[in-house]
Amino acid sequence: MTAIPEPIALSASRSKDPIWLAGPGLLYLALFLILPAAALMWLSFNDNAGHLTLDGYRQMFTAGIYVKVLINTFRIAAETTAACLVFGYPVAFWLAHMPERRRRWIILLVLLPFWMSALLKNFAWMVLLSRRGVVSQLASLIGYKGPIDLLYGHGAVIFAMAHTMLPLAIMTMLPTLLNIDGRLSRAAHTLGATSGQAFWRIYFPQSMPGVAAAGLLVFIGALGFFITPALLGSPRETVIGQLLITQVQQLLNWQLAGCIAVMLLTVTLVVCLVYDRLFGISAISGERAEPKPRAVARRIGYGVLAVLAAVTDLIDRVLTACFGGRRGWLLSIFGSLVVITLLLPVLFFPPMAFSSATFLQFPPPGFSLRWMQTYFTSDIWTGATIRSFAIALVTAALATTFAGVAAFGVARTKSRMGSGAFLIFLLPMIIPNIVTAVALFYLFAHVGLIATDIGIALGHTVTAMPVVFIIILTAFKNYDWRLDQAAGTLGASRRQTVQKVTVPMVIGSIVAAFLFAFLHSFEELTISLFVGGGVKQTLPKQMWDDILLQVTPTLAAASVVVLSVVVVVFLIAESTRRR
To answer: Which of 59, 219, 276, 359 is the most exposed place for a label (fewest CB within 10 A)?
Structure first.
């Protein structure tokens, strides 16, 4: 019997394995991420004469200020991670147990502030938490006397950083919670388990890969934060990112900057290795991974869970006595309050942009178009906006091309190199953004790309590729490849199959990835701050300068423009991705 030909079937030979499609993206990351980061690390072992030395590390560890800032950075990152997990897990649990249609709308509300830049959110908190802000005004209405000073302290920094990273934590945990079989908990109740035991001994252990993935991403992201401590913190909240900016832009001390970068990378890689050992790094993308704890860790974990189960049962009895058997509304109230808090910065921008006041205040004393007119008639502001649009379009095109082709290759490969390619494409998400920016600044300074639009676009492409890669890879992994086989049996060539079957079926995810890459670039500040060289002003960089030099309602007008772009692009991306 003659076998049916399958033109699009993968050949067993390596030359036909589609993993080669990841090659251009891997080469791009090698040139603009791995090699610059390695060069920056090498600088830490060289003095100005090019001789090998450890003087930079001696200076870093013997000077009390550097050790203090290192410890402070790790402490702030750990506290931010803990806050995101504590507040994010109940919200993810709430979303996982609500009807699909309602969950989709709530997810949109959670994701909207996530795609709004940290710069804008922190700017909003500066206004809302100031001595004349909304919180102080509400306190005065209820009889509190004296100003409330909520800014420029440790609490404000942790709150604002957790507010920025919380949507990431929620959306990282949610896929794992959705995949948990609820019948297991019901079976535990049938066998006599209490509510606390069923949750902590059955449900929670199955959610641990998602919880750990959320903790990993939040912790790594928080290590590279510098915007929030700079705007909302005091000198006591100085973090590594601020030291890097000072060493590079003001002191030009590349050796010490390299030492600081090495320290950040070392801590990040150690955390990633521990996570990979326990859960598998692929769990970051939402894949199921079986935890692999050792016997000692397992016994300690079971002991902690037993204590938590007992405490939960005690709380459950108290709530039952107070509210009766129906207590689901408590979780709904908690989740709703968290979502409203996430949306607060989004809601407070428009009124301030149309204020008649000469300074930023909420609520505004009157309505005026003065500041919107100032924004649209200013060559500086409109020029920065147009430049941001152009750079974002180039970034989205590059990131979608490199990461999209690579995602296809990784999804279809049968080679072990697929897991290595997957990890490399996640590197820009794993390496702190501040380190990437400094490494690119060092590279581009040698090739003449500092203060150029193409340099900023190349840098933005590096940091946008992980999100694009994961979105498109997820689409390909959920794709039914039997459709391609059917097209092959009907005589379609491989090229025709890709063009007329594969791409049309995943085009929604590709367009969504493109738009999310656009948003990432449009609001990115860190790379623009370094690679732009203070000459090429993107809109976030112009807003950053305005916050540092002169805070006027023109800044609120620019924020409304950014917010409008984010909302429109975000809604289009989500609509396209669902279709």
So the answer is: 359
